[in-house]
């Protein structure tokens, strides 16, 4: 039996049917063998005891432990089914901001299948022909010396999808400990951020009951903003 635990949640939207959380760093979303406590799941059970009756406490999509930003949660089964169906049909728009190594010159779409593998009991995703369809859209926001600031839109939502795709095309995310670029280091950047510079900044979807379009934003957290400010200084 999973236990309810107090954990501060930053809620940026809530009504009788759903809520949207702005997730902080260093928080696991779902309990697992190594992280049974102090997760978003446990916190939801504490704040909304009725979510015990829903799959995954109503969580529609998850974020990695050190990825920040917006997460969608349903409060009842009909809303859960509706939102899961929207997600399956790619009708929930999810966008991220990230900073990567190297210069990506143009907007592009990465369409490469992803498969789960295990390295020393650590789950890692790889590009593989037998993997699941995975589509990531890249939009270039700004170039710096040796770095690119991107807006990223998920069409599919595989585990570690953005991190895996960007690493595969040799433009890994700054600070990513698992999909890090080989032979690339910048100690000054590592002093500014100690996790992957990836933030879920935007959600857009149709409300299951009110039928209006909800558009929600989350500003960049301080550590990623600090990296951007640093890159601006060394680019001039």
What does this structure look like?
The chain is α+β, with helices and mostly antiparallel strands and 236 residues long. Helix content is 20%, strand content 31%. It is built from five helices and eleven strands; from the N terminus they run ββαβαββββββααββα. It has helices at 40-47, 77-88, 161-168, 187-192, 222-234, and strands spanning 11-14, 18-23, 68-74, 93-101, 108-111, 114-119, 122-127, 135-144, 147-154, 198-206, 213-217. Strands 1, 2, 3, 4, 5, 8, 9, 10 and 11 form a nine-stranded mixed β-sheet that branches. A hairpin with a 6-residue loop joins β10 and β11 (213-217). The radius of gyration is 18 Å and the shape is globular. The N and C termini lie far apart (56 Å). The model has no long low-confidence stretch (mean pLDDT 93).
Write the layout of secondary structure elements.
Layout: E1 11-14, E2 18-23, H1 40-47, E3 68-74, H2 77-88, E4 93-101, E5 108-111, E6 114-119, E7 122-127, E8 135-144, E9 147-154, H3 161-168, H4 187-192, E10 198-206, E11 213-217, H5 222-234
Parallel strand pairs: 3-10
Antiparallel strand pairs: 1-2, 2-3, 4-9, 4-10, 5-8, 6-7, 8-9, 10-11
Order of helices and strands: EEHEHEEEEEEHHEEH
Largest sheet descriptor: 9 strands, mixed
Binned strand content: 25-35%
Question: How would you classify the quaternary structure?
Answer: single chain
Output the structural class: alpha+beta
- Choose one word for the global shape: globular
Per DSSP, the total helix count is: 5
**Span from first to last CA?**
56 Å
Helix content: 10-25%
Stretches where pLDDT is under 50 for at least 5 consecutive residues are none
> What is the β-strand count?
11
Radius of gyration: 18 Å
The overall pLDDT, averaged over residues, is: 93
């Amino acid at each position: 039996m999973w236990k309810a635990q107090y954990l501060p949640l930053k809620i940026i939207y809530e009504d009788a049917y759903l809520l949207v959380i702005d997730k902080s760093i260093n928080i696991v979303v779902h309990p697992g063998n190594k992280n049974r406590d102090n997760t978003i799941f446990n916190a939801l059970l504490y704040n909304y005891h009725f979510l015990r009756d829903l799959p995954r406490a109503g969580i529609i999509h998850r974020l990695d432990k050190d990825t920040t930003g917006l997460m969608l949660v349903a409060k009842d089964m009909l809303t859960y089914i509706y939102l899961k169906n929207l997600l399956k049909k790619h009708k929930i728009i999810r966008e991220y901001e990230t900073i990567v190594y190297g210069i990506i010159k143009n907007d592009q779409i990465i369409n490469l299948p992803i498969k789960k593998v295990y390295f020393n009991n650590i789950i890692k995703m790889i590009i593989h022909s037998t993997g699941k369809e995975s589509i990531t859209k890249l939009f270039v926001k700004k170039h710096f010396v040796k770095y690119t600031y991107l807006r990223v839109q998920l069409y599919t939502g595989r585990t570690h999808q953005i991190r895996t795709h960007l690493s595969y095309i040799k433009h890994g995310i700054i600070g990513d400990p698992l999909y890090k670029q080989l032979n690339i280091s910048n100690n000054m950047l590592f002093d500014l951020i100690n996790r992957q510079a990836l933030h879920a900044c935007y959600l857009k979807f149709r409300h299951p009951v009110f039928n209006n379009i909800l558009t929600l934003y989350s500003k960049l957290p301080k550590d990623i903003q600090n990296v951007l400010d640093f890159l601006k200084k060394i680019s001039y």
